[in-house]
Protein: [histone H3]-lysine(4) N-trimethyltransferase
Organism: Nothobranchius furzeri
Amino acid sequence: CMKDGAMTGSIAGLKRFTSPVKGRGLQVTRPFKVGELLFSSPAYSCVLSVKERGSCCEFCFSRKEGLARCGKCRKACYCDLKCQKGDWPMHKLECSAMTAFGENWCPSETTRLVARILAKKKMQKEPSASEKMLLIGELQSHLEDEDNEKREGTEADIAALYRFYSKHLEMPDHKDLLTLYSQVACNGFTVEDDELFQMGAAIYPDVALINHSCLPSVIVTYNGTSSEVRAVQNMKPGDEVLISYIDLLYPTEDRNKRLRESYYFTCDCNECKTKSKDNAKVKVRKRSDPFEPQVISNMVRYGRNSIREFRFKCLNSLARPSELLEMCEQSLEEMGAVFDDSNVYMLHMMYQAMGVCIYMQDADGAIRYGKKLLKPYSKLYPPYSLNVSSMYLKLGRIYMNVERRSEGVSALKKALAIMEVAHGKDHPYIKEVRREMGQK
């Protein structure tokens, strides 16, 4: 939502720019302090994850008990009649189809979001000036860069769009659909809660203008279905607004591989040029007879393969939780012969092991892995990282559940110190954590 280079419908102090190298971006026109809100943005379109149904309101994403179910499909849940009415223009795309298809109703989250974007475009017969600026057509597409595997996935998604939504939607031509899916892939946001669990997906055209850096100046958090952008560095007029598109834990080569695969560019921020944290991230065990470089590079390859295999088995439900935990323990043992405990490939597997322990309600196991993660996380992530605050939060809540209150309060305080900057002091998550600590 821009007008003559300045942002409208949000906080003054931001302007849009275009450069030959970076394309479009945002910069600040006044100083911003750490923790200050640059702007908040309602979702152009959003969708709640299927796995969150029953736990969260389909319309406002509030997580609460006692939600009311849609009387027709008995799947979608709402806070009240107001939320149900607000969601009906979008829910009606799915309501009867879910009942008709039953277990065979299985569009991807991307397809569900695309269906809502198409419905929204149709609803905007004569959009206002600000809505015109929000239209999805402004967003970047990388259709020409996609490989065969990605294109095949998109074709399968388009087939599902026709199968599940043709009753309610007029479909654009095939090329336009391919472009729209590409735009959603490049510009979509995963809406996450305070512990970084995925709640849904959304499109925020304003936030999509922000370029990537591995040394971000701002952070994006979510308040219901709105996104909020806050400074995590002090900013002066002319500074570019920069977020991270990816998990910053990994070394430079891994980060740029992910950026190329998902966003089709290579980062040249100062961290990528200097690789200043790479040695700490791929730290090996100290010993009098140092490891051969080949031994280290082989173990890095093993670590990457282990991560890929674990992810594949999780996504496709190919292993029971106990088998997943065994996979983590096995790869930790293998890598631990060469890698230090603070090595990022070790940390990744410890994080996965902690998640499996939480799922299996093994508090002792989750605490054991969580404690090992915290110190290296605090060192390797940038300041005010949600990855660090969510780890303190998870650990603090586990301590509270097993009545280790003083350790719980201590961990939750550390989470709060980061969250008050990243989420703002009045965010519902902050109030909730204070309540858990017994504060008002």
About this structure: The first strand starts at residue 2 and ends at 3. The CA atoms of residues 213 and 268 lie 8 Å apart. Residues 1-10, 128-134 have pLDDT under 50 and may be disordered.
